[in-house]
């Protein structure tokens, strides 16, 4: 059992930290809203720190799940950042979906203190976090990954290392690129079936059993047809992730035409007031264009 800290208790972080506690690890948590940290401790045991440093002091592993690059820097660096409370041999495991650049930046700073760093963004959404069934994409040294993998295993269904620091974030970009085009295609297919007068639900169930099948089609077609969009990853967060991917692609000289187009479609959804809708809400944009809503 390890002494761990978990920084960031949102819809993903809170259940992930809970699995650490259930597995018997000693867990101290931090959240910008202290009431969330207090509520987590009341439900799961362990302790909490008023600052990232307080939560992380003496920890073997610090797991982080915050919003973006700036949030990540704010909890790692500075006099009250987590790194200030760590000793050589500790490992920071960052589950935030952030840029590869910030992962490399923080890894270099941590290395000066003898602290390891693994960038480890996750896929699986809130349900995956709550069920301990996340897919985790990692970058870091073999040594740091080998140390951290057994800790991550308590909330993962799959966990792999893809290269040095930054490789995990690049892999997560691949994940988001694939999802963007897929959800747009599903939206167009369901909308097409509806306008043709077919039973879109029955069509989706049959198509999901063939070559057109996917997790998104199987798990989201019913709520898409019903116009219910409170079942997963928000559009606002998806646009953040797509912005990271598009910026990375530009720096590499790689073209992402479908991703760039779907990013603008999500901007239209935001303009409709759907920033907190889940990513399957792309179908509402089509319905709005047709005058159906």
Describe this entry's structure for a reader.
This protein has helices at residues 13-22, 34-44, 52-56, 69-76, 100-111, 125-130, 142-152, 167-195, 200-207, 215-226, 235-252, 257-271, 282-290; strands spanning 3-7, 26-30, 47-48, 61-64, 91-94, 116-119, 122-123, 134-138, 156-161. The mean pLDDT is 97. With 293 residues, the protein is of the alpha/beta class. Strand 5, helix 5 (100-111) and strand 6 form a beta-alpha-beta unit. The protein folds into two domains: 3-164, Rossmann fold, CATH 3.40.50.720; 170-290, N-(1-d-carboxylethyl)-l-norvaline Dehydrogenase, domain 2 (Orthogonal Bundle), CATH 1.10.1040. The strands form two sheets. A six-stranded parallel β-sheet has the order 3-2-1-4-5-6, with helices on both faces. It has a three-stranded mixed β-sheet with strand order 7-8-9.
Give a brief outline of the structure.
The protein is α/β, with parallel strands linked by helices and 293 residues long.
Characteristics:
about 290 residues; alpha/beta; Rossmann fold; N-(1-d-carboxylethyl)-l-norvaline Dehydrogenase, domain 2; 2 domains; 6-stranded parallel β-sheet; 3-stranded mixed β-sheet
Instruction: State the fourth-level CATH superfamily of the largest domain.
Output: NAD(P)-binding Rossmann-like Domain
CATH overall fold name of the largest domain = Rossmann fold
CA radius of gyration is: 20 Å
In order across it, which strands form the biggest sheet?
Answer: 3-2-1-4-5-6
From the spread of the alpha carbons, the general shape counts as elongated
Q: Supply the number of structural domains.
A: 2
Mean pLDDT: 97
Biggest sheet architecture: 6 strands, parallel
Helix coverage percent:
40-55%
What is the CATH C-level name of the largest domain? Alpha Beta
Number of helices: 13
Distance between the first and last residues' Cα: 54 Å
Total number of β-strand segments? 9
Percent of residues in β-strands: 5-15%
Low-pLDDT stretches are: none
Query: Which structural category do the helix and sheet elements fall into?
Result: alpha/beta
SSE run: EHEHEHEHEHEEHEHEHHHHHH
- CATH A-level architecture of the largest domain: 3-Layer(aba) Sandwich
